[in-house]
Amino acid sequence: MNDQIQLEDREYVAGVYNRFPVAIVSGKGSIATDADGKNYIDMAAGIAVNIFGYCDEAWYRAICKQAAKVQHVSNLFYSEPCARLAHMLCDRTGMKKVFFSNSGAEANECAIKTARKYAADTKGSDCFTIITLKNSFHGRTITTLSATGQDHYHELYRPLTPGFVHAEAEDIDDIRRLASENKTAAIMLECVQGEGGVTALSREYVQAVAKFANDNDILLIIDEVQTGNGRSGKLYSYMNYDIQPDIVSTAKGLAGGLPLGATMLGEKVKNVLGHGDHGSTFGGNPVACAGGVSVLERIDDELLASVRRKSKLLFETFAKFDGIEKVTGMGLMIGLKTTKPAREVAEACIKDGVLCSVAKDRIRLLPALNIDDSLLFQAMDVIRKVVR
Ligand SMILES: *Cc1c(COP(=O)(O)O)cnc(C)c1O
Predict the structure, then answer these.
(1) Whose CA is nearest to atom 11 of ligand 1?
(2) Residues 84 and 209 in one domain
(3) In this structure, is residue 83 part of a structural domain?
(4) Which of 98, 166, 240, 383 would suit a FRET pair with 87, their CA atoms being 20 to 30 Å apart?
(5) Distance 115 CA to ligand 1 centre (A)
(6) How many Å apart are CA 295 and CA 271, to the nearest integer?
(7) pLDDT at position 1, please?
(8) Average pLDDT, the chain
(9) 64 belongs to a structural domain
(10) Residue 354 included in any domain
(11) Distances (CA, A) of 110 to 6, 72, 196, 198, 223
């Protein structure tokens, strides 16, 4: 069965993904089952999306209940799950308004549009530059690709959207320099660079960036698409740094497996977008938002404490393994710099029953937040044998 699915996919699906040779057909919690009936411990969670694993009871009930009532209303009309989720997000973050979309890239597009409009309204239409970091990842639309600070993503798709410059991470002077050379609307960053290799920024640096932005009326946008929704051990990763961003984008884990993006707007920018300034047909979809409500309700202090505890366990255990040179990241977003090439390690892990992903030269682990300790121990055991 696996082989048949793979053949059909390779024939008919655009060849942009270098998939691992597994077709997942079902799952329960953090166990995935492939088309040949083989089970895997899932340490990737669909790239940080399946925040409570597969077929989670409460989540599944919430989305089915909503789908049985109304599956879509369009943004011509009001819908309860959308209003409720926006209210919950604001209560939990101190942000003031939320724009819903369907993906991380779209959440960032809204952040970028809001920043440009705010700067044009307050400083003039020649103030539009957004500073992002080298090695960042913000999405694959032409504009979010332009925001992404990695040249290899750019090469095929010029001309890019103008107005983005890329600063060296951990170097506040580079941000000062770029802000003095360009009329700057915003600084956008991931507190833990995900696709860039699972690297957490230092507290000193993030706080210095936040202060510089605030002192100069430059908006601070935090991209929480991957780090958000409990993954870092706090609800949003910026909360580990004691800063208050102006705009927060998130997506991946927000609806527990359904496509949903959110752009949260702080006090300064809450009214920047007015009627007709932005929109999305699917954005705020009731089924996706019902999933989001159910996910957010469960990311409480107890769950977050368990994320931090599991994180510590993984960090401390991996640090002792032969063949692992460095353990990076935060919470349940963990990068392993292995002596063997990462892709080779990932393929071996998957063969031995542990699903994982690769980011740059690292193995990237993003398990469901509620994964059992016993599965973590089993997965670590497989990884220990594969990396050495
Ligand atoms: C995945 C990701 C995106 C893009 O999200 P899509 O849903 O694929 O558009 C943007 N920013 C970060 C930090 C991400 O990890």
Answers:
(1) 138
(2) yes
(3) yes
(4) 240
(5) 19
(6) 27
(7) 82
(8) 98
(9) no
(10) yes
(11) 36, 21, 22, 24, 12
